[in-house]
Amino acid sequence: MARAIRRGLANMKIQAYLTAAVVNLKRLAAALYAFILTRIALGPSAPTNRAHSGSKIFAT
């Protein structure tokens, strides 16, 4: 990080962690947004990949 806002190794490490956290949150937000858009595009009656949906696990 050639342009660290704060001086010192400890402060640079904090800035690096915060920068990485922001990058990961942006990726997560983009993935969630894409997931929501595909669910809206497919509609509520789209099939899911659940193997046990509707099965009676505790039936006697």
The helix content, as a percent range, equals 55-70%
H/E series = H
Give the overall silhouette: elongated
Q: What share of residues are in beta strands?
A: under 5%
Describe this structure in words.
By secondary structure, the protein is mostly helical. It has a domain at 1-41. The protein has one helix spanning 9-42.
List the helices and strands and how they pair.
Blueprint lengths: L8 H34 L18
Which properties best describe this structure?
single chain, 60 residues, mainly alpha, 57% helix, Transposase DDE domain-containing protein
Provide a concise account of the structure shown.
With 60 residues, this protein is mainly alpha-helical.
